[in-house]
Structure to design on (320 residues):
């Protein structure tokens, strides 16, 4: 989704920022409610890679057992943190992505009437992902810890909420501990966001060119609703598949304290570093382990990303 030249020329930077933050937040919140049970499944499958025995045989088994033993509350365990995260993630991504496009235009001298190249859009997207990763890591740390709590707690145990989990992390590891697994988030968001926005724009341009040829009209920059959804769906699949192993390692690191506490006999205990954990996971299950939960993640990201761009592009058109 390249920034609209009309919007760039008409809106002030402050107005563009408010729109990007508002529209991105709304789109992220709606999509996260839809996808959370599938995200929970992904995290639980990733978290068990280094366990001596697997709790779940696959995504359907995980969903079924979670529903059976934990009910609807289990499927939405830890939802507040990812809703906040999705709002912050999408608001930051769209805001920084748009601003970096403006910076690249000024640096290259490209006028508003000329579309930026896909490589320029990918560069702006990578920068947006890098910035956003610093916001996401603490939120995802809390989310991942909450999503595996029921796997080790007794049925009658009172589980801590997101604030309690966050304060516990700070108390035990200090503020620096909030960014445990940040290397994985950084890699995923930088590479994944570059793939996300550039894929969305590539498919959108193909659809716009197709419409131009069929209808014989001057090329329009405005996507129809179904075009936003289709291009967004393709982008979602590309985002998650591109850097999925980095996300798997991150999830394993962030759930190590709950599932593989230090001192447990007979367990493979990885060092709490990105490379150390990645090596241990590869040794345990090979490439398959690094892609644990990838299928269901890509499957849920297709409608989820379609929802994000359908809402964001729709709001952008309505409030243009």
């Amino acid at each position: 989704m390249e920034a609209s030249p009309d919007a760039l020329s008409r809106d002030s930077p402050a107005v563009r920022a408010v729109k990007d933050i508002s529209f991105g937040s709304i789109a992220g919140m709606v999509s996260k409610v839809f996808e959370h049970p599938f995200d929970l499944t992904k995290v639980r499958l990733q978290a068990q890679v280094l366990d001596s025995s697997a709790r779940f045989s696959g995504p359907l088994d995980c969903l079924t057992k979670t529903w059976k033993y934990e009910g609807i509350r289990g499927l939405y365990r830890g939802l507040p943190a990812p809703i906040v995260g999705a709002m912050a993630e999408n608001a930051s991504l769209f805001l920084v992505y748009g601003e970096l496009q403006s910076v690249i235009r000024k640096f290259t001298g490209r006028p508003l009437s000329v579309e930026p190249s896909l490589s320029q859009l990918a560069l702006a997207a990578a920068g947006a992902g890098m910035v956003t990763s610093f916001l996401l890591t603490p939120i995802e740390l809390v989310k991942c810890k909450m999503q595996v709590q029921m796997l080790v707690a007794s049925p009658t145990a009172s589980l801590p909420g997101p604030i309690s989990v966050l304060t516990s992390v700070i108390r035990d590891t200090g503020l620096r501990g909030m960014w445990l697994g940040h290397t994985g988030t950084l890699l995923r968001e930088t590479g994944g966001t570059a793939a996300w926005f550039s894929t969305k724009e590539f498919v959108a341009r193909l659809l716009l060119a197709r419409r131009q040829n069929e209808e014989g009209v001057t090329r329009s920059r405005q996507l129809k609703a179904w075009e936003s959804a289709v291009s967004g769906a393709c982008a979602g699949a590309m985002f998650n598949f591109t850097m999925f192993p980095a996300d798997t390692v991150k999830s394993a690191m962030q759930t190590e304290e709950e599932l593989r506490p230090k001192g447990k006999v007979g367990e493979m205990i990885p060092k709490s570093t990105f490379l150390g954990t990645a090596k241990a996971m590869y040794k345990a299950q090979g490439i398959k382990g690094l892609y644990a939960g990838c299928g269901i993640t890509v499957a849920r990201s297709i409608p989820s990303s379609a929802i994000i761009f359908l809402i964001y592009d729709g709001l952008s058109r309505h409030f243009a």
User: Anything to note?
Assistant: The mean pLDDT is 87.
